[in-house]
Amino acid sequence: MIRKYDGKIVLPDGSEYPGCRFGAREDRVCELVFNTSMVGYQEIVSDPSYTGQLVVMTYPIIGNYGVTDEDYETKIPTIGGLVVREYNDIPSNFRYTKTLSEILEDYNIPAIEGVDTRKLTRAIRDEGSCKALLTSRDVPVEEALERLRDTQLRRDQVPQVSCKKRWYARTSNHRHTVVAVDCGIKLNIVRSLNQRGCNVTVVPYDTSAQVIEDMEPDGVFLSNGPGDPEDVAPVIELVRRLRGKFPIFGICLGHQMIALAYGGQTYKLKFGHRGGNHPVKNLATGRLEITSQNHSYAVDARSLAGTGLEVTHVNLLDNTVEGLRCPADRVFSVQYHPESAPGPQDSGYLFDQFIAMMEEGKRHA
């Protein structure tokens, strides 16, 4: 099928990347980022951490296995948009229930194919993440640049994606109860805890420490989520009030907020880490883990002196901090996603580590 080049992406330097639009036919200004995963586009589209971001997929063919009801990471996707080299609208997969384009239309998410994604990825790598406009090809570049200048990216993304009231995910013959603070939680995190015998109560990001203490959980989990961790002051304060009282496990944004709560600092990476192929070294075991990542910010290792936090994992590509712990407070975290679907699955032991902490807490209660 011949598709019409009816869309384009415009960057702040005036460069234009033409392509064919699919999904929702809506113009959108977003932060432009890239993802190096070879599979898992449905999980990426439905991951709340991509809220408001225009994601360039470096793998060339997207859509070839469709979308499956059981594989969503959130019920309502909030990704800003999708950029691909080649879109396949005729999936080959016995599990698929809709095409990717149908899902994007359902949730008003614009997308574009036929783009030179190699060139665009190199531009992001060399110049860093930036604002970008996905629009019609007939929009003059002067008008596009004006729209880019006049549009401010949202900073209230966690309130946008966090649940508005608590909800429950129970499992049979549960052994532990976990309160998960929702900053944009991926559903596979909840599934991973359920599979290990945990009843999970998911609460809004601004739930008070007293409310969580009154629930008497065995452990507290801090979720992933979008945006700058410094914007999520309620959760940073929550960590300060709950540390030492319950085992606490944080992933991604949760990892960054733990660092801030202990007095550390974070900074924005040039183009972030996004993809399922990042090598991380476990400093305790020397083991190398291949990990899935999705974040724009990192913990500043130099800021951790005197905080009581120890670095447990490092990224072998750029030596950024990938894991932290405070044994005295039973707090630990990782920057990457041990629950990542469809993989890799090298780091699932971290959930077992959380379970062991809760069991130890019960023995000494």
Globally, the shape reads globular
Classify the helix fraction into a percent range: 10-25%
- Any low-confidence stretches, pLDDT <50, length ≥5? none
Most strands sheet: 10 strands, mixed
Structural class: alpha/beta
Strand content: 25-35%
Structure notes:
It is a single chain. The protein is an alpha/beta fold and 365 residues long. Helices cover 24% and strands 31% of the residues. It has a ten-stranded mixed sheet, sandwiched between helices. A seven-stranded mixed barrel has the order 1-2-8-6-4-3-9. Strands 5-7 form a two-stranded parallel ribbon. The N and C termini lie far apart (66 Å).
Question: What's the topology here?
Answer:
Elements: E1 7-10, E2 16-23, E3 28-35, H1 41-45, E4 53-57, E5 61-62, E6 81-83, E7 86-87, H2 100-106, E8 110-113, H3 117-127, E9 130-136, H4 141-150, H5 157-161, E10 167-169, E11 176-182, H6 187-195, E12 198-204, H7 209-215, E13 219-222, H8 233-242, E14 248-251, H9 253-261, E15 266-282, E16 288-299, E17 310-315, E18 321-326, E19 331-334, H10 349-363
Parallel strand pairs: 3-4, 4-6, 5-7, 6-8, 11-12, 11-13, 13-14, 14-19
Antiparallel strand pairs: 1-2, 1-9, 2-8, 3-9, 10-12, 15-16, 15-17, 17-18, 18-19
Helix pairs in contact: 8-9
Key phrases:
365 residues, seven-stranded mixed beta barrel, single chain, 19 strands, 10 helices, alpha/beta, globular
